[in-house]
Amino acid sequence: MSNIPRFAAYAAAFEKAYESDDWSSLRDFFTEDAVYEVGLPLLGAERCEGREAILEWFPTVVEGFDRRFESRTLRAIDGPREDGDAVWIHGVATYRAPGIPDFELELEETAHFREGRIHRLVDAYSPEMKAEARRFLAEVGPRLGLRLALGD
After folding, report:
1. Among the CATH numbers 3.40.50.2000, 1.10.10.10, 3.40.50.150, 3.10.450.50, which is that of 4-144?
2. Which tens digit of pLDDT belongs to each residue from 4-20?
3. Residue 94 burial (CB count, 10 A)
4. 94 within 8 A of 107, measured Cβ to Cβ
5. Which of 54, 80, 96, 108 has a 20 to 30 Å separation from 122 between CA atoms?
6. Under a CB-based contact definition with an 8 Å cutoff, are residues 38 and 125 in contact?
7. How far apart are the C-alpha atoms of 44 and 97, rounded to whole Å?
8. Which of 149, 123, 128 is closest to 138 using CA atoms?
C-alpha cells in the first residue's frame, strides 16, 4: 500500500496547523519515537527526537522564522515519489516581506513511514542553498527580527 496519500494528508494537516497554530492535529502522523532531521541548523534545531519534541519545534520555527515574513508560498518541483517505506518530494518555499527581496528556500523532504506513521522526517538542502540561506539571513534577518544559529 502506498504511503503517498498519507504523506499528502500530513502535508495538508501541516498547512492547516500553520494557519490555525494548533499543532496537535499532527500528533497522529508521527510515531512516538519519530526523529526529525531539520537539515538547516541556521533555523535553530538540528534534530528533534520524539513526537513531542517535533510538535514543539514546528510552532517554534514557524513563529521564529516563517511568521517574520508577510507571506509564504509553496511549490512542488518534483515528486512525490515513493521508494519502499519512504516518500520524497522536492519543493521550494518562497517568503516575501515589504522592503525585503523574496527568499526562495529549496529543499528535498523525505518521510519514512512505519505502519502508516512518520518515524523519520528528513529535510535536505544543497550546500549552495545553505550558503544562500546564511547570506540572506545575515543580510536581511535583523530587519525581520531573525537570529541565526551559529552552527551551520
Report:
1. 3.10.450.50
2. 999 999 999 999 999 99
3. 15
4. no
5. 96
6. no
7. 21
8. 149
